[in-house]
Design a protein that fits this description.
Blueprint: E1 4-10, H1 14-27, E2 31-34, E3 51-53, H2 60-80, E4 85-87, E5 90-94, H3 96-102, H4 110-119, E6 124-127, H5 128-134, E7 145-149, E8 153-155, H6 157-170, E9 174-176, E10 181-187, E11 190-195, E12 199-207, H7 213-217, E13 227-236, E14 251-255, E15 259-263, E16 271-275, H8 295-308, E17 316-326, E18 333-336, E19 343-347, H9 356-369, H10 384-387
Parallel strand pairs: 1-2, 1-12, 2-9, 5-14, 12-19
Antiparallel strand pairs: 3-8, 4-8, 5-7, 6-7, 10-11, 11-12, 13-16, 13-17, 14-15, 15-16, 18-19
Helix pairs in contact: 1-6, 1-9, 2-9
Bound molecules: flavin-adenine dinucleotide.
Flavin-adenine dinucleotide binds near residues 10, 15, 45, 181 and 216.
Length: about 400
């Protein structure tokens, strides 16, 4: 048996690296992070230049956490002196006619407005003319409605993962990369963690393994219903750099026939666009996923941009694939195993990067105190959506 640790974090992606930093800050070398691939790898969910951060949430559970997410990122920026957030403002556009025609049931903006009102976040409601008056980059049909929220923007995921890892190390945390955890086994009040060549013992384990969550939890006799999808984003080498700079073009989410989202020029000298849950039709696993772009989505993005934001386009720089891991209700999993409270689990459901710094702090709470200061009741691992097979999937695509 190797050295004992107070806490072992399994998975050093966006959420695990944030947990390592928060735990390292508290218990230094008594926390160990174990990552199966090299740090910064591109096989999971968290490696890219940009992720959208926003106060705009259509569910109260997330709106309640959103201001804390910004505060947590600001703490990391202050301690590291590394800039991770870029505020661009954000548009949520409801393509009413397109949505109705396609009857896709994607969400409208009323839920966001209700949450803004409930939590007192300022916002602007715009009609199509008001929107194109301020952002002529958009070509709209005329029935669109939109909300603009000034605090939305970009969190630099790749830089943030590396910053969390560096800060964790600065506080004494130990990290093993290229070391797959083969099994975990609850043992007394602690957990045995086995890799190819070593077995560790920890008082607490944090499972932040996203697409591989069920592989890791098998040893604890737990399996949660998760759908893993292969998502993709495309970078366009637009010639219109000035028009699409972070000072002039906001991050956007488009709710129409499909749920698209996009970024101004950031990370690459290119704009970037993706589709939420675009990979749903053909689920994968963390091991069966490919790096091959889906030409259907590549064409779908291009056709949408030609119609709605033509200046955003340019020669395709590259298309990057990435994984979502989604419970049936599309909500986070954040909490301890009821039968093994020494093991806590985090699954980001395809929309957690904006909360990563905060989730790191929540995982600290769960590992150190057995409960969190933040309202996470809605994300329990034993909630009906995860335990009652009769309950249908409620994916918003
Ligand atoms: C295309 C795309 C766009 C997105 N856009 C946004 C956005 O705009 N805003 C937003 O908030 N969120 C967004 N998300 C979601 C967000 O990126 C994820 O929710 C978040 O990154 C999940 O982080 P994670 O740490 O759980 O996953 P990961 O980064 O995948 O980390 C899990 C880690 O566990 C490791 N691991 C697994 N099994 C083992 C094992 N047995 N032993 C050791 N290590 C193991 C893996 O190798 C991996 O490094 C997007 C996701 C994708 C794919």
């Amino acid at each position: 048996m190797e050295k004992n640790y107070e806490v072992i974090v399994i998975g050093c992606g966006g959420l695990g690296s944030a947990a390592l930093y928060r735990l390292g800050k508290e218990i230094g070398a008594s926390v160990l992070g174990i990552e199966q691939f090299k740090l910064g790898h591109s096989r999971g969910a968290s490696q890219d230049h940009s992720r959208i951060i926003r106060l705009a949430q259509h569910q109260s559970e997330y709106a309640a956490l959103a201001p804390h997410a910004y505060a947590a990122w600001n703490e990391v920026e202050r301690e590291s002196d590394v800039k991770l957030l870029t505020k661009t403002g954000g548009l949520v556009i409801d393509a009413v006619a397109e949505r109705d025609a396609a009857n896709t049931g994607t969400r409208n903006i009323d839920g966001y407005v209700a949450a803004f009102e409930e939590f007192g976040f300022d916002y602007e409601l715009l009609d199509a003319d008001e929107l194109t008056g301020r952002w002529p980059q958009f070509h709209l049909e005329g029935s669109e409605r939109a909300i603009f929220q000034k605090d939305s923007g970009i969190v630099d995921a790749g830089k943030a993962n590396a910053t969390h890892i560096a800060l964790a190390r600065a506080h004494g945390a130990e990290i093993l990369e290229e070391t797959p955890v083969r099994s975990i086994r609850p043992s007394g009040n602690g957990v045995e963690v086995t890799t190819d060549h070593r077995t560790f013992f920890a008082d607490r384990v944090v499972v932040a393994s996203d697409a591989w969550t069920n592989d890791v939890l098998e040893g604890a006799g737990v399996r949660v219903p998760l759908t893993v999808t292969q998502e993709q984003v495309t970078y366009y080498a637009t010639p219109n750099l000035h028009e699409f700079s972070t000072n002039r073009f906001p991050v956007f989410m488009w709710h129409g026939e499909h749920n698209f989202y996009g970024f101004p020029v950031y990370g690459e000298v290119a704009t970037k666009m993706g589709q939420h849950m675009g990979g749903l039709p053909s689920p994968v696993t963390g091991d069966t996923r490919t790096f091959d772009p889906d030409p259907v989505r590549q064409l779908r993005y291009r056709e949408f941009l030609e119609r709605r934001i033509p200046g955003f386009l340019g020669p395709e720089m590259y298309t990057k694939t990435c994984l979502y891991t989604v419970p049936p209700d599309q909500n986070f999993i954040l909490g301890a195993l009821p039968d093994h409270p020494q093991i806590s689990v985090a699954v980001g459901a395809g929309h957690a990067y904006k909360f990563a710094a905060l989730i790191g702090d929540i995982l600290r709470d769960l590992a150190m105190d057995g409960e969190s200061r933040y309202p996470i009741e809605a994300f329990r691992i034993d909630r009906p959506a995860l335990t009652d097979p009769a309950l249908a999937q409620t994916f918003h695509v």
